[in-house]
Design a protein that fits this description.
It is a single chain. This protein is mostly helical. It has a single domain, classed as Up-down Bundle (Na+/H+ antiporter like fold). It is built from 14 helices and no strands. It is globular. The termini are close together.
């Protein structure tokens, strides 16, 4: 428990360091976007390759991918039921922000220091299903609430997924595993050296992009939005942990991911629905802070 608390405190301090240095002018917010490119295109793929020897394609992988997709669909149905009396725009905003999970930039770096490489791969499998909704599925359903014109463009969604380096790497590793081809030890050793920087860069990036400026009315709106999101994820966590026929480590990683922050792209899609609404961006920042503490608590329980 002490080791978990020390590592978690370290992550919090790295986030705080990034935030303080940004406020002091050492970093600009744009630097956070630059770091996100490094994380998503270099260190995270390297971390995946480093854990390639742990990948095993079986029914567990398929189940976890489906869980990632089903979790988002459940969130959307849950929001539509709770928000059934609200305006279409409010409902659409909550559909986008109550579904979707920040796996690559947050959950994986946070948990990778506490668990074996297999745990990271379980998270990536969840993210394959999650990405289908995060990268356009949820927005299409939200857009349909507003004007009925939203349609899920499968071709465009696949192109977007294939432009994601971590997704491409994971597909490549899936194919290698299915063909029983082992990654050369020399490659995994080099990848491990690069991937070891993933957690630090991801947490520093989060601190740099973090923004906390909020009024009382905004606080109420954010509280309601996050309350709906976390209530839905508590329900999902209980169902998955009790019923899924997968290893206990896989169940633990699914629960951890369910309490990760909002997807970074959710604020972008929200702007496309309501350009003047500041709530999604604020909720995204608050969910990062909450995510650190909730996930730390889960790690203490699981480890």
């Amino acid at each position: 428990m002490r080791e978990v608390l020390v590592k978690s405190l370290g992550f919090i301090l790295i986030v705080a360091l990034g935030y303080i240095l940004k406020k002091r002018g050492f970093f600009k917010k744009e630097d956070g976007l630059f770091l996100s490119k490094i994380v998503m295109n270099i260190t995270l793929p390297a971390a995946l390759i480093a854990g390639a020897s742990s990948m095993n394609i079986n029914y567990v992988a398929i189940i976890i991918i489906l869980v990632g997709l089903i979790s988002n669909l459940f969130d959307i149905v849950f929001v539509k039921y709770i928000e059934r009396r609200n305006s279409p725009v409010e409902k659409a905003i909550r559909i986008i922000n109550c579904s979707g999970y920040n796996v690559g930039n947050f959950a994986i770096p946070f948990a990778a220091s506490f668990f074996e490489p297999t745990a990271l791969l379980y998270m990536c499998m969840f993210d394959m299903g999650n990405s289908c909704m995060v990268l356009g599925g949820s927005y299409a359903l939200a857009k349909n609430e507003v004007d009925g014109s939203g349609r899920l463009n499968i071709k465009k969604l696949i192109k977007t997924l294939l432009r994601s380096v971590p997704f491409d790497v994971l597909i490549f590793l899936f194919i290698m595993s299915a063909l029983k081809i082992s990654m050369p030890k020399e490659i995994t050793t080099i990848a491990s050296m690069i991937g070891s920087a993933n957690a630090f860069l991801a947490m520093l990036m989060i601190g740099i992009i973090l923004e906390i400026n909020i009024t009382r009315n905004q606080a109420k709106a954010v509280t309601k939005l996050l309350g709906i999101r976390y209530l839905g994820n508590v329900i999902l966590s209980c169902i998955f942990y009790a019923l899924l026929p997968v290893p206990i480590l896989a169940k633990q990683m699914i629960v951890v991911v369910l309490f990760s922050p909002l997807s970074t792209i959710s604020a972008v899609y929200s702007k496309m629905i309501d350009p003047d609404n500041p709530i999604p961006a604020i909720a995204n920042s608050i969910s990062i802070i909450l995510g650190i503490f909730i996930m730390t608590g889960l790690l203490i329980v699981f480890t």
